[in-house]
Amino acid sequence: MTTLATYSFLSPSVLTGPGGLRLQTSGGPELNPRFFSGDVTLPAAAASGLLVISAVAAADFRRQQTRLGLLDPVVTAGESKLRFEAFSGCTGVHARLDLLPGALDGNGFLRHGTTNIDINPPLRKALTRVREGRLHLDVGPDDVAVTTATERVVERKVPLSSAWLRGFTETQVITAGFDVRAETDRATATGFLARLPKGGGQEQLWVVPAGRGLRLTARAGAGAVGLGGAHRLQLLTPFLRYAKTLRVYGPAAGSSAVGTWELSAPGLRLSLTLSPQANRGFSGEGAALTQLAGSDGEADADLVSTLLAWDTSIDVTDLAASSGLSPDRVRAALTVLATAGRVGYDVAEAGYFHRSLPQGPGVEQLNPRLRRARRLVAEGAVTRVEQGTQVVGSSGRTYLVREVSGAMTCGCTWWEDHHGDRGPCAHVLAAGLLDGQREAPSAAASREGVAR
After folding, report:
1. Where in the numbering of this chain does the SWIM-type domain appear (predicted)?
2. Higher confidence at residue 385 or residue 283?
3. Cross-strand pairs, 353
4. Which of 28, 139, 356, 436 has a 20 to 30 Å separation from 370 between CA atoms?
Protein backbone atom coordinates (compact mmCIF):
# COMPACT_ATOMS: atom_id res chain seq x y z
CA MET A 1 0.00 0.00 0.00
CA THR A 2 1.22 3.52 -0.82
CA THR A 3 0.10 6.53 1.19
CA LEU A 4 0.11 10.06 -0.24
CA ALA A 5 0.23 12.73 2.44
CA THR A 6 -0.20 16.41 1.53
CA TYR A 7 0.70 19.57 3.39
CA SER A 8 -2.01 21.98 4.45
CA PHE A 9 0.60 24.75 4.76
CA LEU A 10 4.11 25.00 3.39
CA SER A 11 5.53 25.37 6.91
CA PRO A 12 4.30 26.48 10.35
CA SER A 13 3.45 30.08 11.05
CA VAL A 14 5.99 31.57 13.46
CA LEU A 15 6.47 34.47 15.84
CA THR A 16 9.33 36.61 14.50
CA GLY A 17 9.69 38.71 17.63
CA PRO A 18 7.66 40.73 20.10
CA GLY A 19 4.40 41.51 18.35
CA GLY A 20 5.52 39.90 15.08
CA LEU A 21 3.59 37.06 13.46
CA ARG A 22 4.52 35.57 10.08
CA LEU A 23 1.65 33.61 8.57
CA GLN A 24 2.39 31.13 5.81
CA THR A 25 -0.67 32.32 3.89
CA SER A 26 0.78 35.82 3.51
CA GLY A 27 2.77 35.22 0.30
CA GLY A 28 6.01 37.07 -0.37
CA PRO A 29 9.16 34.94 -0.01
CA GLU A 30 7.00 32.06 1.21
CA LEU A 31 5.79 31.43 -2.33
CA ASN A 32 9.05 29.59 -3.07
CA PRO A 33 10.17 28.21 0.29
CA ARG A 34 13.41 26.36 0.88
CA PHE A 35 14.63 24.41 3.91
CA PHE A 36 18.23 24.49 2.75
CA SER A 37 20.04 26.13 -0.14
CA GLY A 38 23.80 25.90 -0.18
CA ASP A 39 26.98 24.19 -1.29
CA VAL A 40 28.24 20.84 -0.08
CA THR A 41 31.86 21.41 0.91
CA LEU A 42 32.76 17.71 0.60
CA PRO A 43 31.10 16.97 -2.75
CA ALA A 44 32.74 13.67 -3.71
CA ALA A 45 32.10 12.03 -0.33
CA ALA A 46 28.54 13.32 -0.20
CA ALA A 47 27.82 12.10 -3.73
CA SER A 48 29.18 8.65 -2.83
CA GLY A 49 26.97 8.52 0.25
CA LEU A 50 23.89 9.54 -1.75
CA LEU A 51 24.58 6.77 -4.25
CA VAL A 52 24.66 4.27 -1.35
CA ILE A 53 21.26 5.60 -0.19
CA SER A 54 20.00 5.12 -3.74
CA ALA A 55 21.41 1.57 -3.87
CA VAL A 56 19.66 0.66 -0.60
CA ALA A 57 16.32 2.01 -1.84
CA ALA A 58 16.72 -0.04 -5.02
CA ALA A 59 17.55 -3.32 -3.25
CA ASP A 60 15.07 -6.05 -2.34
CA PHE A 61 16.88 -8.74 -0.35
CA ARG A 62 13.89 -11.03 -0.04
CA ARG A 63 13.80 -11.45 -3.80
CA GLN A 64 17.51 -10.81 -4.41
CA GLN A 65 16.77 -8.22 -7.05
CA THR A 66 17.02 -4.53 -7.79
CA ARG A 67 13.87 -2.46 -8.11
CA LEU A 68 13.60 0.30 -10.68
CA GLY A 69 11.74 3.56 -10.25
CA LEU A 70 11.20 3.18 -6.48
CA LEU A 71 14.19 5.08 -5.12
CA ASP A 72 12.53 7.59 -2.81
CA PRO A 73 14.63 8.84 0.12
CA VAL A 74 13.31 11.09 2.86
CA VAL A 75 15.29 14.32 3.25
CA THR A 76 15.24 16.28 6.51
CA ALA A 77 16.86 19.70 7.03
CA GLY A 78 17.38 21.08 10.51
CA GLU A 79 19.78 21.62 13.39
CA SER A 80 22.58 22.39 10.88
CA LYS A 81 22.31 18.92 9.33
CA LEU A 82 20.85 17.32 6.24
CA ARG A 83 19.68 13.73 6.71
CA PHE A 84 18.91 11.43 3.77
CA GLU A 85 17.10 8.20 4.74
CA ALA A 86 15.87 5.18 2.80
CA PHE A 87 14.69 1.63 3.34
CA SER A 88 15.35 -1.28 1.05
CA GLY A 89 12.35 -2.59 -0.86
CA CYS A 90 12.01 -5.41 1.68
CA THR A 91 12.37 -2.85 4.56
CA GLY A 92 15.12 -5.03 6.06
CA VAL A 93 17.81 -2.35 5.68
CA HIS A 94 17.51 1.23 6.91
CA ALA A 95 20.16 3.61 5.58
CA ARG A 96 20.89 7.17 6.61
CA LEU A 97 23.43 9.68 5.37
CA ASP A 98 24.00 12.64 7.68
CA LEU A 99 25.65 15.70 6.17
CA LEU A 100 27.02 17.49 9.23
CA PRO A 101 28.02 21.16 9.59
CA GLY A 102 31.56 20.39 8.39
CA ALA A 103 30.20 19.22 5.03
CA LEU A 104 27.76 22.07 4.40
CA ASP A 105 27.63 25.78 3.82
CA GLY A 106 26.42 26.84 7.26
CA ASN A 107 24.51 29.81 5.85
CA GLY A 108 22.33 27.55 3.73
CA PHE A 109 19.82 26.54 6.42
CA LEU A 110 16.64 28.58 6.15
CA ARG A 111 14.16 26.56 8.21
CA HIS A 112 13.40 23.06 9.44
CA GLY A 113 11.54 20.74 7.12
CA THR A 114 11.25 17.35 5.44
CA THR A 115 10.33 16.01 2.03
CA ASN A 116 10.59 12.70 0.19
CA ILE A 117 11.71 12.51 -3.42
CA ASP A 118 12.53 10.05 -6.16
CA ILE A 119 16.12 9.42 -7.31
CA ASN A 120 15.85 8.89 -11.04
CA PRO A 121 18.60 7.78 -13.46
CA PRO A 122 19.58 11.37 -14.43
CA LEU A 123 20.35 12.23 -10.80
CA ARG A 124 22.26 8.99 -10.21
CA LYS A 125 24.28 9.65 -13.36
CA ALA A 126 25.01 13.21 -12.23
CA LEU A 127 26.19 11.99 -8.82
CA THR A 128 28.59 9.47 -10.37
CA ARG A 129 30.29 12.35 -12.20
CA VAL A 130 30.92 14.42 -9.07
CA ARG A 131 34.57 14.50 -8.10
CA GLU A 132 35.77 17.58 -6.26
CA GLY A 133 33.75 20.04 -8.31
CA ARG A 134 30.56 21.83 -7.34
CA LEU A 135 27.68 20.14 -5.54
CA HIS A 136 24.87 22.50 -4.58
CA LEU A 137 21.62 21.39 -2.91
CA ASP A 138 18.25 23.13 -2.78
CA VAL A 139 15.84 21.31 -0.47
CA GLY A 140 12.21 22.42 -0.31
CA PRO A 141 8.84 20.97 0.69
CA ASP A 142 8.05 19.79 -2.85
CA ASP A 143 11.41 19.07 -4.49
CA VAL A 144 15.17 18.72 -4.17
CA ALA A 145 17.44 20.30 -6.78
CA VAL A 146 21.02 19.08 -7.25
CA THR A 147 23.45 21.29 -9.16
CA THR A 148 26.88 20.05 -10.21
CA ALA A 149 29.59 21.71 -12.27
CA THR A 150 27.88 20.61 -15.48
CA GLU A 151 24.15 20.10 -14.84
CA ARG A 152 21.12 20.71 -12.66
CA VAL A 153 18.62 17.95 -11.79
CA VAL A 154 15.33 18.52 -9.97
CA GLU A 155 13.55 15.64 -8.23
CA ARG A 156 9.91 16.11 -7.20
CA LYS A 157 8.08 14.94 -4.12
CA VAL A 158 6.56 11.45 -4.40
CA PRO A 159 4.18 9.31 -2.30
CA LEU A 160 5.71 7.73 0.80
CA SER A 161 5.23 3.99 1.29
CA SER A 162 3.26 2.93 4.37
CA ALA A 163 5.80 0.10 4.82
CA TRP A 164 8.46 2.78 5.25
CA LEU A 165 6.36 4.48 7.91
CA ARG A 166 6.15 1.20 9.83
CA GLY A 167 9.88 0.73 9.34
CA PHE A 168 10.63 4.19 10.74
CA THR A 169 8.65 3.31 13.85
CA GLU A 170 10.40 -0.01 14.41
CA THR A 171 13.96 1.24 13.89
CA GLN A 172 13.36 4.18 16.23
CA VAL A 173 12.17 1.90 19.03
CA ILE A 174 14.78 -0.83 18.45
CA THR A 175 17.83 1.45 18.26
CA ALA A 176 16.88 3.81 21.10
CA GLY A 177 19.46 3.11 23.79
CA PHE A 178 22.03 1.55 21.45
CA ASP A 179 25.63 2.44 22.16
CA VAL A 180 29.00 1.65 20.57
CA ARG A 181 29.83 -2.05 20.89
CA ALA A 182 32.91 -2.04 18.64
CA GLU A 183 35.04 0.45 16.74
CA THR A 184 37.79 0.01 14.18
CA ASP A 185 39.72 1.99 11.55
CA ARG A 186 39.18 2.05 7.79
CA ALA A 187 41.87 -0.48 6.93
CA THR A 188 40.51 -3.04 9.38
CA ALA A 189 36.94 -2.32 8.29
CA THR A 190 37.91 -2.85 4.64
CA GLY A 191 39.38 -6.27 5.44
CA PHE A 192 36.36 -7.23 7.55
CA LEU A 193 33.87 -6.35 4.81
CA ALA A 194 35.96 -8.22 2.23
CA ARG A 195 35.80 -11.41 4.33
CA LEU A 196 32.02 -11.40 4.76
CA PRO A 197 30.01 -14.18 3.11
CA LYS A 198 28.83 -13.28 -0.37
CA GLY A 199 25.48 -14.11 -1.95
CA GLY A 200 22.07 -14.37 -0.34
CA GLY A 201 22.61 -16.86 2.47
CA GLN A 202 20.40 -16.70 5.57
CA GLU A 203 23.10 -17.86 8.01
CA GLN A 204 22.85 -16.12 11.39
CA LEU A 205 26.24 -14.71 12.38
CA TRP A 206 27.35 -12.55 15.27
CA VAL A 207 30.10 -9.96 15.56
CA VAL A 208 32.24 -9.35 18.64
CA PRO A 209 35.23 -7.04 19.22
CA ALA A 210 38.62 -8.72 18.83
CA GLY A 211 41.46 -6.42 19.83
CA ARG A 212 41.34 -3.54 17.36
CA GLY A 213 39.24 -5.52 14.91
CA LEU A 214 36.04 -7.51 14.61
CA ARG A 215 35.47 -11.25 14.74
CA LEU A 216 32.61 -13.29 13.29
CA THR A 217 31.12 -16.03 15.42
CA ALA A 218 28.22 -18.43 15.06
CA ARG A 219 27.04 -17.93 18.65
CA ALA A 220 25.51 -15.02 20.49
CA GLY A 221 27.23 -13.83 23.63
CA ALA A 222 27.52 -10.80 25.85
CA GLY A 223 28.15 -7.72 23.73
CA ALA A 224 27.62 -9.57 20.43
CA VAL A 225 25.76 -7.86 17.59
CA GLY A 226 23.81 -9.94 15.10
CA LEU A 227 24.71 -9.98 11.42
CA GLY A 228 22.07 -12.03 9.65
CA GLY A 229 22.23 -11.65 5.88
CA ALA A 230 25.83 -10.44 6.12
CA HIS A 231 25.99 -9.77 2.37
CA ARG A 232 23.75 -6.73 2.92
CA LEU A 233 26.63 -4.95 4.65
CA GLN A 234 28.51 -4.85 1.33
CA LEU A 235 26.37 -1.82 0.50
CA LEU A 236 28.80 0.24 2.58
CA THR A 237 31.84 -0.67 0.45
CA PRO A 238 31.74 2.28 -2.02
CA PHE A 239 31.93 4.77 0.87
CA LEU A 240 34.97 3.16 2.53
CA ARG A 241 37.47 5.32 0.68
CA TYR A 242 36.12 8.41 2.51
CA ALA A 243 35.65 6.84 5.96
CA LYS A 244 37.96 7.06 8.93
CA THR A 245 36.10 4.81 11.35
CA LEU A 246 33.61 1.93 11.41
CA ARG A 247 31.44 1.78 14.53
CA VAL A 248 29.04 -1.02 15.44
CA TYR A 249 26.10 -0.15 17.70
CA GLY A 250 23.94 -2.42 19.82
CA PRO A 251 22.19 -2.44 23.22
CA ALA A 252 24.22 -1.71 26.31
CA ALA A 253 23.65 -5.16 27.80
CA GLY A 254 23.26 -8.65 26.38
CA SER A 255 23.28 -9.39 22.67
CA SER A 256 21.12 -8.06 19.86
CA ALA A 257 20.01 -9.60 16.60
CA VAL A 258 19.80 -6.06 15.20
CA GLY A 259 22.83 -3.83 14.76
CA THR A 260 23.67 -0.42 13.34
CA TRP A 261 26.85 -0.14 11.26
CA GLU A 262 28.23 3.36 10.79
CA LEU A 263 31.04 4.64 8.60
CA SER A 264 32.20 8.00 9.88
CA ALA A 265 34.09 10.56 7.80
CA PRO A 266 34.91 14.20 8.54
CA GLY A 267 31.59 15.99 8.14
CA LEU A 268 29.58 12.89 7.17
CA ARG A 269 28.10 9.75 8.71
CA LEU A 270 26.69 6.85 6.70
CA SER A 271 24.88 4.11 8.61
CA LEU A 272 22.99 0.90 7.90
CA THR A 273 20.66 -0.76 10.39
CA LEU A 274 20.08 -4.41 9.46
CA SER A 275 17.10 -6.55 10.43
CA PRO A 276 17.83 -9.96 12.05
CA GLN A 277 17.72 -11.82 8.71
CA ALA A 278 17.62 -10.85 5.06
CA ASN A 279 14.09 -12.23 4.73
CA ARG A 280 12.74 -10.10 7.60
CA GLY A 281 11.65 -6.52 7.11
CA PHE A 282 11.48 -3.96 9.90
CA SER A 283 7.90 -3.15 8.93
CA GLY A 284 6.73 -6.41 10.54
CA GLU A 285 8.98 -6.60 13.61
CA GLY A 286 6.35 -5.41 16.10
CA ALA A 287 8.84 -3.93 18.58
CA ALA A 288 6.75 -0.75 18.88
CA LEU A 289 3.38 -2.38 19.48
CA THR A 290 3.49 -2.39 23.28
CA GLN A 291 4.20 1.33 23.39
CA LEU A 292 1.61 2.07 20.72
CA ALA A 293 -1.01 0.20 22.74
CA GLY A 294 -0.77 2.67 25.64
CA SER A 295 -4.20 4.18 26.19
CA ASP A 296 -2.89 7.76 26.25
CA GLY A 297 -0.30 7.43 23.48
CA GLU A 298 -2.13 9.27 20.70
CA ALA A 299 -3.41 12.07 22.95
CA ASP A 300 0.08 12.48 24.42
CA ALA A 301 1.51 12.52 20.87
CA ASP A 302 -0.70 15.49 19.98
CA LEU A 303 0.71 17.42 22.93
CA VAL A 304 4.34 16.47 22.20
CA SER A 305 3.84 17.30 18.52
CA THR A 306 2.66 20.78 19.46
CA LEU A 307 5.79 21.32 21.52
CA LEU A 308 8.01 20.08 18.69
CA ALA A 309 6.44 22.58 16.31
CA TRP A 310 8.23 25.31 18.27
CA ASP A 311 11.47 23.48 19.07
CA THR A 312 13.06 21.12 16.57
CA SER A 313 15.42 19.59 19.13
CA ILE A 314 14.14 16.57 21.05
CA ASP A 315 15.18 15.93 24.62
CA VAL A 316 12.99 13.49 26.57
CA THR A 317 13.71 15.15 29.92
CA ASP A 318 12.91 18.63 28.60
CA LEU A 319 9.76 17.41 26.88
CA ALA A 320 8.63 15.69 30.08
CA ALA A 321 9.09 18.93 32.01
CA SER A 322 7.33 21.01 29.34
CA SER A 323 4.40 18.64 28.85
CA GLY A 324 3.87 17.43 32.41
CA LEU A 325 4.15 13.82 31.19
CA SER A 326 6.44 11.18 32.60
CA PRO A 327 9.56 10.32 30.54
CA ASP A 328 8.05 6.91 29.66
CA ARG A 329 4.86 8.57 28.38
CA VAL A 330 6.99 10.98 26.33
CA ARG A 331 8.82 8.01 24.77
CA ALA A 332 5.49 6.34 23.99
CA ALA A 333 4.27 9.58 22.40
CA LEU A 334 7.45 9.77 20.31
CA THR A 335 6.74 6.21 19.15
CA VAL A 336 3.28 7.29 17.98
CA LEU A 337 4.87 10.22 16.12
CA ALA A 338 7.42 7.83 14.61
CA THR A 339 4.47 5.92 13.12
CA ALA A 340 3.95 8.94 10.87
CA GLY A 341 7.70 9.17 10.20
CA ARG A 342 8.00 12.32 12.30
CA VAL A 343 10.60 11.18 14.84
CA GLY A 344 13.82 9.24 14.39
CA TYR A 345 16.67 8.13 16.61
CA ASP A 346 20.34 8.88 15.99
CA VAL A 347 22.61 6.29 17.61
CA ALA A 348 25.72 8.41 17.04
CA GLU A 349 24.23 11.30 19.03
CA ALA A 350 22.26 9.04 21.39
CA GLY A 351 19.18 11.17 20.88
CA TYR A 352 15.98 11.69 18.91
CA PHE A 353 15.66 13.97 15.92
CA HIS A 354 12.58 15.65 14.48
CA ARG A 355 11.24 15.03 11.00
CA SER A 356 8.33 17.14 9.80
CA LEU A 357 6.56 14.79 7.44
CA PRO A 358 2.83 15.54 7.43
CA GLN A 359 0.52 13.28 9.37
CA GLY A 360 -0.08 10.04 7.50
CA PRO A 361 -2.39 7.11 8.29
CA GLY A 362 -3.43 6.56 11.89
CA VAL A 363 -1.65 4.22 14.26
CA GLU A 364 -4.23 1.46 13.86
CA GLN A 365 -4.22 1.63 10.06
CA LEU A 366 -0.48 0.91 10.04
CA ASN A 367 -0.59 -1.76 12.75
CA PRO A 368 -3.23 -4.44 12.11
CA ARG A 369 -2.30 -6.41 15.26
CA LEU A 370 -3.09 -3.37 17.38
CA ARG A 371 -6.32 -2.78 15.49
CA ARG A 372 -7.35 -6.38 16.10
CA ALA A 373 -6.47 -6.18 19.80
CA ARG A 374 -8.61 -3.10 20.31
CA ARG A 375 -11.48 -4.77 18.51
CA LEU A 376 -11.21 -7.81 20.80
CA VAL A 377 -11.45 -5.59 23.87
CA ALA A 378 -14.35 -3.60 22.41
CA GLU A 379 -16.23 -6.83 21.65
CA GLY A 380 -15.80 -8.08 25.22
CA ALA A 381 -13.70 -11.03 24.04
CA VAL A 382 -11.09 -10.56 26.79
CA THR A 383 -11.79 -11.90 30.26
CA ARG A 384 -9.66 -11.94 33.39
CA VAL A 385 -9.44 -15.30 35.10
CA GLU A 386 -7.75 -16.50 38.26
CA GLN A 387 -4.00 -16.41 38.93
CA GLY A 388 -3.59 -13.23 36.92
CA THR A 389 -4.08 -14.91 33.55
CA GLN A 390 -6.49 -13.83 30.83
CA VAL A 391 -8.50 -15.67 28.21
CA VAL A 392 -8.88 -14.05 24.79
CA GLY A 393 -11.55 -15.33 22.43
CA SER A 394 -10.75 -15.02 18.73
CA SER A 395 -12.46 -16.59 15.71
CA GLY A 396 -14.30 -19.01 17.92
CA ARG A 397 -11.15 -20.18 19.72
CA THR A 398 -9.93 -19.38 23.21
CA TYR A 399 -6.30 -18.58 23.98
CA LEU A 400 -4.63 -18.44 27.35
CA VAL A 401 -2.45 -15.39 27.93
CA ARG A 402 -0.28 -15.56 31.02
CA GLU A 403 2.85 -14.11 32.53
CA VAL A 404 5.93 -16.34 32.63
CA SER A 405 9.20 -15.04 34.11
CA GLY A 406 8.05 -11.45 33.72
CA ALA A 407 6.99 -11.78 30.08
CA MET A 408 3.53 -12.33 28.60
CA THR A 409 3.01 -15.49 26.56
CA CYS A 410 0.12 -16.89 24.51
CA GLY A 411 -0.98 -20.22 23.10
CA CYS A 412 -1.76 -18.94 19.59
CA THR A 413 0.03 -20.01 16.43
CA TRP A 414 1.78 -16.64 16.04
CA TRP A 415 3.34 -16.93 19.47
CA GLU A 416 4.32 -20.55 18.95
CA ASP A 417 6.03 -19.60 15.67
CA HIS A 418 7.90 -16.53 16.90
CA HIS A 419 8.07 -16.72 20.73
CA GLY A 420 8.00 -12.93 20.97
CA ASP A 421 10.76 -12.31 18.41
CA ARG A 422 8.33 -10.37 16.20
CA GLY A 423 6.60 -8.43 18.97
CA PRO A 424 3.42 -9.32 20.88
CA CYS A 425 0.47 -11.05 19.22
CA ALA A 426 -2.96 -9.41 19.16
CA HIS A 427 -4.07 -11.49 22.17
CA VAL A 428 -1.20 -10.29 24.38
CA LEU A 429 -1.88 -6.72 23.28
CA ALA A 430 -5.56 -7.13 24.11
CA ALA A 431 -4.65 -8.45 27.55
CA GLY A 432 -2.53 -5.37 28.18
CA LEU A 433 -5.26 -3.06 26.94
CA LEU A 434 -7.73 -4.63 29.34
CA ASP A 435 -5.40 -3.93 32.22
CA GLY A 436 -5.61 -0.24 31.30
CA GLN A 437 -1.86 0.27 31.44
CA ARG A 438 -1.18 3.99 31.29
CA GLU A 439 2.59 3.96 31.64
CA ALA A 440 4.41 2.59 28.59
CA PRO A 441 7.34 0.25 29.27
CA SER A 442 10.88 1.39 28.72
CA ALA A 443 12.35 1.22 25.23
CA ALA A 444 14.63 -1.58 26.40
CA ALA A 445 11.67 -3.67 27.48
CA SER A 446 9.94 -3.09 24.15
CA ARG A 447 13.07 -4.24 22.33
CA GLU A 448 13.20 -7.53 24.22
CA GLY A 449 11.77 -9.49 21.31
CA VAL A 450 14.48 -8.42 18.82
CA ALA A 451 17.38 -8.42 21.29
CA ARG A 452 17.63 -12.18 21.65
Report:
1. 399-436
2. 385
3. 313, 344
4. 356
**Amino acid identity, position 144:** V
With bands split at pLDDT 50, 70 and 90, how would you rate the model's confidence at 420? low
What are the CA-CA distances from residue 120 to residues 159, 272, 424 (Å)?
A: 15, 22, 39
Mean pLDDT, range 228-255, rounded to an integer: 90
Alpha-carbon gap, residue 184 to 208, rounded angstroms: 12
The half-sphere exposure of 412 on its side-chain side, counting CA atoms within 13 A, is 23
Residue 415 is classified by DSSP as H
State the Cα–Cα distance between residues 354 and 343, nearest whole angstrom: 5
CATH code linked to domain 33-282: 3.70.10.10
Per the prediction, the chain carries an average pLDDT of 79
Q: How far apart are CA 271 and CA 201, in angstroms?
A: 22
pLDDT, tens digit, 9 for 90 and up, residues 184-208 = 999 999 999 999 988 766 678 899 8
- Spatial distance between the Cα atoms of 398 and 385, rounded to a whole number of angstroms: 13
Give which of 116, 120, 130, 115 is closest to 45, Cα–Cα: 130
Asked whether 35 and 111 are in contact (CB, 8 A), the reply is yes
Give yes or no for a contact between 141 and 9, defined as CB atoms under 8 angstroms apart.
no
